[in-house]
Amino acid sequence: MRPAAFQDFAIDVLKNTADVQRVQTLAEAGETKYPSGLVLTVAGREIRWQVYGQLAEGAKHEPPTAAVQGAPAPFEAAPVTAAPDAWLAGVIGAAESPEIATVDVWSAREGSEGQHGVTITWHNGERTFVRKL
After folding, report:
1. Crossing angle (nearest 10°) for helices 3-14 and 84-94
2. Lower Cβ count inside 10 Å, N or C end of the chain?
């Protein structure tokens, strides 16, 4: 899934999440440094995320890679008090999208001190990276 499409998907999922008070794109928040991203107000604090992607092997930018469906990715729900990327991964995973193959939480990786983000691997081979700014 391309970054712009993921951004729309994430907004739909996040706006229906109890802990989220506000969801907007980086552009709506006046951030012009990154072309895609989200600004969330979660449990009273603002969190900004950059969204970027990687095409499937051998894919070109045009035409877009077709969506492929499979079993939704396994995930672990995390409370809003957990690491921000663990919480976000839980929210994305809870959507149980049949297009998502895996959800990887960066802060859960060994030796990843201070790195917060999520890698979503799609069944069509594309990857979306969501990095905390």
Report:
1. 90
2. C
Contact partners, residue 24, CB within 8 Å, separation at least 6: 38, 39
Q: pTM of this prediction?
A: 0.94
Distance CA 131, CA 114 (A): 11
What's the mean pLDDT in 94-109? 96
CA distance 108 to 21: 26
Strand partners, 120: 103, 128
48, burial (CB in 10 Å: exposed 0-12, middle 13-18, buried 19+): middle
Distance CA 87, CA 43 (A): 12
Confidence of residue 52 (pLDDT cuts 50, 70, 90): very high
The tokens describing 126, both together, are 């594309």
Question: Residue 21 has which token pair?
Answer: 């008070």
